[in-house]
Write a structure and sequence with these properties.
The structure holds two protein chains of two kinds.
Chain A (H helix, E strand, L loop, with lengths): L10 H5 L24 E5 L8 E7 L3 H9 L12 E6 L6 E10 L10 E7 L2 H12 L4 E3 L4 H8 L8 H23 L2 H26 L8 H22 L11 E7 L5 H9 L17 E7 L2 E7 L9 H16 L2 E7 L10 H12 L8 H11 E6 L6 H13 L6 E3 L8 H17 L6 H25 L4 H19 L4 H11 L5
Parallel strand pairs in A: 1-6, 7-9, 7-10, 10-11, 11-12
Antiparallel strand pairs in A: 1-2, 2-5, 3-4, 4-5, 8-9
Helix pairs in contact in A: 3-14, 6-7, 6-15, 6-16, 7-14, 14-15
Chain B lengths: L20 H7 L1 E7 L3 H13 L3 E5 L13 E3 L3 H10 L4 H8 E7 L9 E6 L1 H13 L4 E5 L2 E8 L8 E8 L6 E8 L8 E4 L2 E4 L10 H10 L4 E8 L2 E3 L9 E3 L25 E5 L2 H10 L4 H4 L11 H7 L6 E6 L6 E5 L7 H8 L10 E3 L2 E8 L13 E2 L1 E3 L9 H19 L13 H12 L23 H13 L4 H23 L1 E3 H7 L13 E3 H4 L7 H7 L1 H4 L6 H28 L18 H10 L4 H5 L6 H17 L14
Parallel strand pairs in B: 1-2, 1-9, 2-6, 8-20, 9-21
Antiparallel strand pairs in B: 3-5, 4-5, 7-8, 8-9, 10-11, 10-19, 12-19, 13-17, 13-18, 14-15, 15-16, 16-17, 22-23
Helix pairs in contact in B: 2-11, 3-11, 3-13, 4-5, 7-9, 7-10, 13-14
Classes of the chains: A alpha/beta, B alpha+beta.
């Protein structure tokens, strides 16, 4: 699934090449005098979850307009780079969202080199969501795409060419985080809704295109277009209602997603119960006891965590268990952090064999990195995985110590903790490691704030509705321009559900119509 | 312009005496050899000669140069765009269409200028004559009758990418090889072609012509190691016009005022009142019955190679969409021809059953067949093995165009032919090869789709393939392509260039003039009394340019109000109308177009070793790049499975290399201007 058009991201990076090339001659089209202003972008640049202060950054030519509209500073802007305490209000309803600090950074003396602004607001999810939605509702302002702030900084010459390398990695990290976040959101009802809109739009476009490309020679009646008219109208109404409907049905899974995974009977459910300090999941010595995903919300070191216990991974005996395993794998794919539970008694007793055994174990439990680069994969793994060596009370102390030493010395394995859920030995150390990991994840804006994903979705939906009105505007006198409206609308929905190519549209055309020449 | 073309009688042509050629030619070295005299071959040969290369066109039968093997028509929706662009680059087919057309119409007239489809029914004889006489009068072009047995290849030039280098060709019974710097293969359906009719199969590419290219097919596959696939197509039976009950069909009349294809022509050769009509009729359930009953006798339809979904045989139409009426167009074959061409009735069953099928249609109940329909299976070279210049990546100097690349249609073939001819000539003259960007032309879309994505069925142009459709219109093909065709490509005559520049400048001035005439909404209302009700003014001061965006306002109306400002541009009133409506939409697209052009302007070296590139790319992406070998960074972004991070890494690598090699010229110059 392609989340956004990431190719757009590095466009300006390319433009540095212009300095290396002779000046181009433009003569291929009638020159236009219109200047295409760059969009103004915003993003939550602090972590999400329960933090004291959240920082929302805005960059681009409309930054001063944004500042005026959100803070009621109609007369003068704040002095540059000075914090000012203001009431922050919704730009349209003027409803008070929060009282917070605002800062104004006129270009070029800002991180991106453009006019920029910052809003420091209280860190609650409700406030953050409201501020992001307010920003998204302003004309010409949209959520930033992965790596876009850094890319703009690069474009403005604030980063050197050598730092492009780092930009690549950053974009990789951000797209990964957005991908996981989007996977979680697309999983539910909302995902189905977007997919449904996308496929209906595809059909509309295919039918308009069929009418344009074939109706002169073929039996394609005007009735086809009348159907498209009403489909487009219905879609417009549905999307508009959805946008006006203060996110009914959108249950956001807030918090760091921690998933417990591993072989059957390794003690995954025991770990969940230990962490919850209550029996949330049924525990038994029978392998395959947990079949569905069991969820619990916890607070670890002050950070919200959504803990999921999954079915043990094995080739299931019945269809219910197989479904459980499928869901388990899906959860691991979407997780911010995976606790891979191992039954310590299964560890090989011979010296130096444990690291190899655990490598193999991880490769079964974790999804193979899509990048395919073993280096990259390993790096990502050690960040997002903790090994829990459970049932340590059943392992001789000497073997435990030797294994611990061997694991410390071996490269490429995620941190490992010996633990006994039964006796709670090692629980303190494990909790300390877990807490620091959750803290890092929460403090990192890249771990995918749901409200930001939501703001991005809203922005695309809004643009989609706007584009659809172009269809009606031109429907009766220029079908090419009307079709362009549907195509644009589909492009915007496609930023959420995945890009749609010309071939896909033609497939629908040939499926639905008998086209000759 | 057209008047000087006189009908030619073939045996008068000096180059038809081809027997003398053998010994002379053997000693000669040509810049470019074009193999094949169809739509791709003729455009390729003419373009190569225009660019300045000594060119030899080799065809099996001189008499069939410029023959329309299938339907007697040119243009249409999408295809008409290609014809206009070919004309803008000084190609032959637009002017040939204006000379040979007997029924002109603009399809999609009511759907917006971006998708207008200029189209004409052609007189086969006139078309052939025009193409032949045009080739005759082209300097630096020689035509030779013969069949090519083998492609001569040698070691590649180590300074350039590629494993082989083409050195010329060998004729079937030719004593000595004919040498050249470049070879353009436009062999159409003749590459391992076989004809199907009923249960009989004969080798060949077109009925009535000897099979050829058996050796070529072998060279391409075995010596050059090219991947080859198989496609099929077909043609309908030709019906004797007298035997058709014309009282039972609908008559479709042409446009009252024919619109020429060519930017150089103000009128067509055929007078408006001389135009011929087309006829429309429909299939019946009896047709479906005959198809079903004859399936076991129909080898072609049983083959599992891919035929076009959009030009299906009547067999596949009724099998895929049973129980329906299908349209059948009866098209004239020419002013003096006694035949009709039944568009939509391509069939490959035995001839007696073809007759039975036809007679199931009321208007054809006593129809007579002159030549039966048949199917063709043929090899094509997977076009992902080509550069955007249409040169084979692995073989220096070898260019392919037309059906050999997996396309269908005259216009698609001609478009590739022209571009292959241009580059074959440029390669021979040691000029950098050029590409056309998909942001600039349908030809660019066509070639980019072919070399970037390959084909799974015969490729035909549709307007929906062009993402920048609102900018790539038939009306502005000259402004998009002619100046570049002259200044950079070298395939456009000075006369055409001057005309295009005049038009471009006048349009600019006209738009500026429109912008300069400004009135308040009240004043406009007074002046445009009769149009008042439809216009909903929203601002106080409105320019003529803004006003033209309303569909009921035309340039002529405004010129009547401001004659001193606008009447000089009345010649361009239609184009100014279109520009005014489309400008805001094109401006919206311009940023996206710029992005694509920037990406396209970064060429990736064709011999890049992706597997060991010292940058952090995942092994999956490395393999992907190694397999597809994109020509530009833009092409790389369109590979399914590429990651944004990988693109940035690649960009970084290219930037560094570009900086290092700033002074060493690059062989393949990416042609999109940022």
């Amino acid at each position: 699934m392609l989340l956004s058009t990431p190719w757009r991201l590095w466009r300006s990076a390319i433009s540095t090449l212009k300095s290396l090339r002779p000046a181009p001659v433009r003569h291929l089209s009638i020159p236009t005098d219109a200047v295409c202003d760059a969009d103004t972008i915003f993003a939550l640049s602090s972590g999400h979850g329960r933090c004291g202060v959240a920082v929302v950054r805005v960059s681009g030519p409309a930054s001063s307009m944004v500042l005026r509209n959100m803070t009621g500073l109609t007369q003068t802007l704040p002095p540059p780079r000075t914090a000012l305490l203001r009431r922050i209000t919704d730009p349209h309803t003027k409803e008070l969202l929060d009282r917070g600090l605002v800062l104004w950074f006129p270009g070029p003396h800002s991180f991106t080199g453009e006019d920029s602004a910052e809003f420091h607001v209280h860190g609650g999810p409700a406030v953050i969501t409201a501020v992001l939605q307010g920003l998204g509702s302003l004309k010409g302002v949209r959520p930033a795409e992965a790596g876009e702030f850094t890319r703009r900084a690069f474009h403005a010459g604030k980063l050197g060419l050598t730092e492009v390398e780092g930009l690549g990695d950053l974009i990789h990290a951000e797209t990964e985080a957005q991908r996981r976040q989007a996977l979680r959101q697309m999983d539910g009802e909302l995902g189905h809704l977007y997919q449904d809109w996308s496929s209906r739009l595809k059909r509309c476009l295919a039918h308009v295109e069929a009418f344009i490309d074939f109706s002169e020679d073929e039996l394609i009646e005007d009735g086809v277009l009348n159907q498209v008219d009403s489909s487009v109208h219905r879609l417009q109404t549905e999307i508009e209602r959805h946008l006006g409907d203060e996110r009914r049905g959108e249950r956001l899974r807030n918090g760091v997603q921690v998933v417990i995974a591993g072989a059957t009977n390794a003690g995954k459910s025991s770990l969940l119960n230990t962490l919850c300090q209550r029996p949330a999941a049924i525990v038994s010595p029978i392998p395959g006891t947990t079949r569905d995903v069991v969820e619990a919300s916890l607070d670890i070191g002050g950070f919200p965590v959504l803990l999921s216990d999954t079915a043990g991974l094995r080739d299931g005996l019945d269809s219910v268990e197989r479904e459980g395993v499928r869901r388990a794998r899906q959860r691991v794919e979407q997780a911010d952090l995976t606790l891979v539970v191992v039954d310590s008694t299964q560890l090989p007793t011979e010296p130096k064999q444990a690291p190899t055994f655990l490598q193999g174990y991880l490769s079964i439990v974790l999804p193979q990195p899509s990048g395919g680069n073993p280096e990259e994969g390993r790096e990502a793994t050690s960040d997002r995985v903790l090994l829990v060596l459970n049932k340590s009370d059943l392992v001789p102390e000497a073997q435990k110590e030797r294994t611990e030493r061997e694991l410390r010395e071996s490269l490429g394995l995620p941190p490992a903790c010996f633990l006994s859920c039964h006796t709670t030995t090692g629980l303190g150390d494990f909790l300390a490691v877990l807490q620091s990991r959750v803290k890092t994840l929460c403090g990192n804006p890249l771990s995918g704030a749901p409200s930001l994903t939501q703001a991005r979705h809203r922005a695309h939906l809004q643009q989609s509705v706007q584009a659809l009105s172009q269809y009606h505007q031109y429907r009766n006198h220029d079908l090419a321009l009307a079709a362009e409206g549907v195509r644009l609308a589909l492009t915007h929905i496609g930023r959420i559900t995945g890009r749609v190519g010309a071939e896909e549209i033609l497939d629908i055309v040939f499926r639905d119509f008998c086209i000759g020449k | 312009m057209l008047a000087r073309k006189l009908p030619l009688i073939l045996h008068n042509l000096p180059w038809s005496v081809s027997s003398r050629a053998g010994s002379d030619l053997a000693r000669r070295h040509y810049d470019v050899i074009v193999v094949g005299g169809g739509h791709a071959g003729t455009e390729a040969a003419a373009a190569a000669a225009r660019v300045g290369a000594e060119t030899l066109l080799i065809t099996q039968k001189i008499a069939t140069i410029g023959a329309l093997s299938c339907n007697p028509s040119l243009g249409g929706v999408g295809k008409g765009h290609l014809v206009r662009e070919l004309d803008a680059l000084d190609g032959l087919c637009g002017r040939a269409g204006d000379w040979a057309g007997v029924h002109f119409s603009i399809l999609n007239r009511s759907k917006g200028p971006a998708v207008w489809g200029p189209r004409a029914q052609l007189d086969r004889e006139r078309y052939r004559q025009f193409i032949q006489s045009e080739l005759l009068s082209t300097p630096r072009l020689t035509v030779l009758e013969g069949s090519v047995e083998e492609l001569l290849v040698s070691q590649s030039n180590p300074n350039e990418p590629g494993h082989h280098r083409v050195t010329g060709i060998c004729l079937v019974n030719g004593s000595q090889p004919i040498l050249s710097s470049s070879v353009v293969l436009t062999t159409g359906t003749f590459l391992s072609g076989s004809l199907f009719m009923g249960q009989t199969t004969t080798p060949g590419g077109r009925i009535g012509d000897a099979p050829s290219c058996s050796g070529l097919s072998h060279t391409l596959r075995e010596t050059l190691g090219l991947r080859v696939g198989r496609l099929k197509t077909g043609t309908p039976p030709r019906i004797v016009k007298e035997s058709v009950e014309l009282s039972l069909v609908q008559i479709q009349t042409p446009d009252k005022e024919p619109t020429p294809f060519s930017f150089l022509n103000t009128h067509t050769h055929c007078k408006p009142e001389e135009q011929l009509p087309c006829y429309l009729t429909h299939t019946t359930p009896g047709v479906e019955r005959v198809v079903r009953e004859s399936l076991h006798l129909n080898c072609h339809i049983q083959q599992d190679s891919k035929g076009p979904r959009y030009c299906p045989s009547i067999e596949s139409r009724v099998l895929r969409f049973p129980g329906r009426q299908h349209q059948v167009w009866l098209e004239p074959e020419g002013l003096t021809s006694d035949l009709l061409y039944p568009q939509g009735l391509t069939m490959t069953m035995p001839p007696d059953l073809q007759l039975r099928l036809l007679r199931e249609i009321p208007a054809l109940h006593r129809a007579e067949i002159r030549t039966p329909g048949y199917g063709v299976h043929y090899d094509f070279v997977c076009p992902t093995q080509l550069n955007p210049s249409l040169q084979v990546k692995s073989t220096q100097g070898l260019f392919l165009a037309g059906q050999i690349n997996g396309t269908t249609g005259y216009e698609e073939a001609a478009a590739q032919g022209l571009w292959a001819g241009v580059n074959a000539a440029r390669a021979a003259l040691s000029l950098p090869l050029l590409a056309l960007c998909r942001t600039q032309s349908y030809i660019g879309v066509l070639i980019d789709d072919l070399v970037g994505r390959g084909v799974t069925e015969p490729y035909r142009m549709f307007t929906s393939r062009a993402e920048f459709r609102t900018s790539l219109r038939p009306d502005n093909a000259d402004i998009r392509l002619t100046p570049r065709g002259f200044e950079e490509v070298g395939c456009v005559s000075l006369r055409r260039y001057k005309e295009a520049v005049r038009v471009r400048d006048s349009l600019q001035e006209g738009l500026a003039a429109l912008k300069s005439v400004t009135l308040s909404s009240t004043r406009w209302r007074e002046k445009l009394v009769e149009r008042l009700q439809v216009i909903n003014f929203c601002s106080f001061s409105i320019s003529g340019l803004d006003l033209l965006q309303y569909k009921d306002v035309s340039f002529e109306m405004l010129a009547a109000i401001f004659p001193e400002h606008l009447s000089p541009y009345l010649e361009f009133s239609q184009r100014l109308n279109i520009e005014a409506v489309y400008r805001p939409h094109c401006e919206k697209q311009s940023r996206e177009i710029e992005r694509v052009q920037e990406e396209e302007s970064l060429s990736l070296p064709p011999d890049m070793d992706y597997l060991s590139l010292p940058t952090s790319l995942s092994s999956e992406v490395r393999e992907l790049l190694d397999r597809v070998r994109p020509n530009t960074l833009g092409a790389a972004t369109r590979i399914p499975g590429m990651t944004p991070a990988a693109i940035v890494h690649l960009l970084h690598y290219v930037l560094r290399t570009a900086q290092r090699n700033q002074h060493t010229g690059q062989r393949v110059k990416a042609a999109c201007k940022p």
